[in-house]
């Protein structure tokens, strides 16, 4: 193994978009992330084209694939196995498969489920592939439970810069050649039962859809409970992230609380919240005048 | 009497005053006429003039909102969204009257083009709105070229107690474009970073944090980090190329400059709040809020935006 170490900081709960542009780096990194999962006794599932070829390549790099396959801690399949019988991508079917796998791994006593997906299939004319970004964004809720770890590999050769950017923003973190996954600058979303969420890291355009989907999930949980979003480890939020949070607080009207906002985040929340607030204050003044 | 007008009308006169007496005569007449019409009134003028007007309007102080333009409008880029339009949108369906004095003797050569562009763009931002904005100019102390520019940015003028139509008033976008001027070169030894790949915004933020922390407080540093992040995000979202961020200090100011191959085609970008349901379009407004001055030079093939934090 060459030790590219692009993804060695990824932990359970992370959902990472891995931009691939170098075949040697790809195979080295795949070997590293599979090996890391096996060492942590997680179940590792790889889906992608030519799974046998991949298994052979990482075996060459020192990963005991035969042993792991026999023990049930490693599985490899083609992406087609996750599509419908008609060969289409159906988010509902894919989500059900994922939940089943996740439940099964839990039942079998694995401390986590590590998913490594080669997304090259999405660049082909698969019916329903246009629904992938929405699905990937929704997935963040599942990842935020903290049991799954997801690495989605998108090849720069197959996806143009615009669609790469769109796919990146549905993931909480990103990595690429010479740009290892950095937990400090990625966004980390972790649901804290029963009704909370902890945010850490940095929220910007590259993880906007991931943040929006998880916050949307919290807002939708409107069952009279008070949900708390702990933002004390959120080191940076851009204006759009601030807007997502401010609007969520507004929409749940007292049912959602932000805890630990930095001065910068407080300012952003005021920025997005103040138009309505100021207007009503001044109206009250004018009415009493 | 209370005015109920059926047709919205925007008036934007400049008041060319000489001395305190003329200043007070022109401004208080404007305020008292608006109050008599039942219109909401705001006075946004710089410090010393604010004190003068407050003292002259004590009897109607409860009918007037006062703001120190040297604070609220220190960055001329935020006067339209945060002072003028805010007051107008706070009074939906009503004609508003505002004294807005964005240009005073202490404005620097660096600030002035942004102030003059602001004056021109008021005419575009308030078209179709029912409002009157009176802009006092100190004709004795301001440079004659500044007074000359006021004739180009105001459709009507008040001088020596009389109103007249400005014969030099021109299309506001054309006038604003004359202040879309090239910026002086950044120092050759200034720290810079080229960005433009996925996830490189984290690198931009790190770069700004590292280079600003020595000059700014922690909060101010994060303000600049946020502003620079919004500009760099625009590069990534709206251009196909890379951007370059440069940072340096000059006496009294920290400057952070973002260069990219984009074109800021809308002169009102950063001055008009998007409709409430829009999720995007807040970046430049926020940038104007976070900085003491934002200077922009944009062409179809390149844009330079310079953020200033006063020390």
Short recap of the structure:
Chain A is an alpha/beta fold. Helix content of chain A is 43%, strand content 21%.
| Main structural class of chain A | alpha/beta
Look at the structure and give the CATH class of the largest domain in chain B: Alpha Beta
Helix and strand sequence of chain A:
EHEHHEHEHEHEEEHEHEH
Low-confidence stretches of chain A: 275-289
Beta-strand residue fraction of chain A? 15-25%
Using the 3D structure, state the CATH architecture of the largest domain in chain B: 3-Layer(aba) Sandwich
**Strand pairing plus helix content of chain B: what structural class?**
alpha/beta
Please write the string of helix (H) and strand (E) elements of chain B. Answer: EEHEHEHHEHEHEEHEHHEEHEE
Structure description:
The complex is a heterodimer of chains A (289) and B (311). Chain A is α/β, with parallel strands linked by helices. Chain A has helices spanning 23-39, 51-60, 65-71, 91-107, 132-144, 161-168, 208-220, 239-251, 263-288; strands at 15-20, 43-47, 74-77, 113-118, 148-155, 173-176, 187-192, 196-203, 227-237, 256-259. In chain A, the strands form two sheets. Chain A has a six-stranded parallel β-sheet, with helices on both faces. In chain A, strands 7-8-9-10 form a four-stranded mixed β-sheet. In chain A, helix 5 (132-144) crosses helix 7 and helix 8 crosses helix 9 (263-288). Chain A is globular and about 55 Å long. Chain B is elongated. In chain B, 47% of the residues are buried. In chain B, strands 1, 2, 3, 4, 5, 6, 7 and 8 form an eight-stranded mixed β-sheet that branches. The A-B interface holds A 19, 161, 164-165, 168, 174-176, 179, 182, 185, 202, 204-206, 236, 238-240, 243, 262-264, 267-268, 271-272, 275-276, 278-279, 282-283, 286, 289 and B 40, 62-63, 86, 89-92, 197-199, 201-202, 205-206, 219, 222-223, 225-226, 229-230, 233, 236-237, 240, 273, 276, 279-280, 282-283, 286, 289.
